Amino acid sequence: MSLSSILSADAIDGAIKDCQAPDSFCPKKFFQLCGLSKKSPQDVKKVFGILDNDASGFIEEEELKFFLQRFSPGARVLTDTETKAFLCAADDDSDGRIGADEFQAMVLS
């Protein structure tokens, strides 16, 4: 399954363009722009599964760096500052990784 089967390619492109500059990525804004925040909890879980590159059940910091590239292969890598801020914003239990429920709560809240 690909992200474009859940989200429109135009919406993904727009969201990627919005955060092209280093340190301009805001997860909440990105989820709104790409349309993910309007999707069902089931669709959000499907997207989580795609983003969980190693299928560990969690999105770790190393996977977060390449978050934008999972949406669009030509996108930039997140900066260390953006990666840490994203992790802090979603990691409710402070275990250093984002679980499916934490991801869903961040996207849909």
Automatic annotation (TrEMBL):
Domain EF-hand, residue spans: 39-74
Gene Ontology molecular function: calcium ion binding
Organism superkingdom: Eukaryota
InterPro entries listed in its UniProt record: EF-hand-dom_pair, EF_Hand_1_Ca_BS, EF_hand_dom, Parvalbumin
Positions bound to Ca(2+) 1: D52, D54, S56, F58, E63
PROSITE patterns the UniProt entry points to: EF_HAND_1, EF_HAND_2
Residues annotated for Ca(2+) 2 binding in this entry: D91, D93, D95, E102
Claim: Nucleotide-binding is one of the keywords in the record: no
This protein's GO CC annotations: cytoplasm
Pfam families in UniProt: EF-hand_7
Keyword terms, alphabetized: Calcium, Metal-binding, Muscle protein, Repeat
Entry-linked Gene3D superfamilies: EF-hand
Function: In muscle, parvalbumin is thought to be involved in relaxation after contraction. It binds two calcium ions.
Family statement drawn from the similarity comment of this UniProt entry: Belongs to the parvalbumin family.
Protein name per Swiss-Prot or TrEMBL: Parvalbumin
